[in-house]
Design a protein that fits this description.
Elements (H helix, E strand, L loop, with lengths): L1 H12 L12 H7 L16 H9 L11 E6 L2 H10 L4 H5 L2 E8 L1 H9 L10 H24 L3 E5 L6 H8 L5 E10 L29 H18 L7 H9 L11 H7 L6
Antiparallel strand pairs: 1-2, 2-4, 3-4
């Protein structure tokens, strides 16, 4: 177990940065083995898969038990194709047998207020929108852990926010509901096997007692080398993480429409006080 654990940690960081815990287990193995899957077989999912994944998702923590999230499970090929067009034309949305759209959903609690003839004064504030977004993220990650335990793979689709009004129209979303992200789900294809991508060294993200930037420059330089080597092994451009950050964030054009999110959210019924 120690050798396996060490190899998992080395893959996750691109080098043997830390020693494995003595009480290692299969759950830790699975978590460290996570990778984004972008190629799927056409094998159908077993009956009950969706319901099981949602049960796992609903087992995640939720602030004040408000449960201000929902999810749409999309399997229709035509609808997946239209959603793909709204989300940067990513082919794996069409290819995956299942596409989840995870939603921040304040509409349910809004309807409860209406039924009880009570104004929910806290609802139009940014905090409530954050609650729904965070709840959706926590729920979806539980689903990822569950689906990977079943031999399935997935990839998050942030480009679903390129046109949240278009997605809302396609899914017939009511006011005060917005798509946080999508998620492709299916059996991983051997044609394009996914690999574990190295993450930042722990000393670049872990702070003890107070936040400190001491040693950050060295940690990031080290990670640039590790990530570049990973891409090179995959036959890709050997760019480091710092280069990716600058490339992704230097221009508003890289947001592909998501720079209009505030206006879109307001038009979809969200107050952002």
């Amino acid at each position: 177990m120690t050798d396996t654990a060490q190899s998992k940690l080395a893959a996750r960081y691109g080098a043997p940065d830390i020693a494995p815990l003595k009480q290692w287990n299969d759950t830790l193995d699975q978590l460290l083995d996570h990778r984004s899957v972008r190629a799927f077989t056409d094998q159908p999912l077993p009956e009950g898969t969706i319901e099981t994944l949602i049960a796992a998702a609903q087992s995640a923590s939720t602030s004040s038990n408000l449960q201000v999230w929902s999810v749409v499970a999309v399997q229709d090929a035509d609808r997946k194709s239209r959603l793909s067009a709204l989300a940067g034309n990513q082919a794996y949305i069409r290819q995956a047998p299942l596409f989840f759209v995870w939603l921040a959903d304040l509409s349910k609690v809004s309807r409860i207020g209406e039924q009880r003839d009570t104004e929910l004064e806290a609802l139009p504030y940014l905090e409530s929108l954050l609650l729904g977004t965070i709840d959706a993220a926590l729920a979806s990650q539980n689903a990822v852990v569950a689906l990977e335990s079943l031999g399935l793979g997935s990839v998050y689709i942030g480009t679903i926010r390129n046109d949240i009004e278009g997605v809302a129209k396609e899914l017939d979303l009511p006011p005060q509901v917005y798509p946080v992200f999508g998620m492709c789900v299916g059996y991983p294809s051997d044609d394009r096997p996914a690999k574990v991508k190295p993450r930042l060294p722990q000393h670049a993200v872990l702070h003890h007692e107070t936040y400190s930037v001491a040693g950050e420059a060295d940690a990031l330089a080290e990670y640039d080398e590790r990530l570049g080597a990973f891409y090179q092994r995959k036959g890709m451009k050997a760019s480091g993480w710092s280069e990716q950050v600058v490339s992704r964030l230097r221009s508003v054009s890289s947001l592909h429409g998501r720079e209009e999110l505030v206006g879109e959210l307001k038009r979809m019924g969200f107050g952002l006080h």
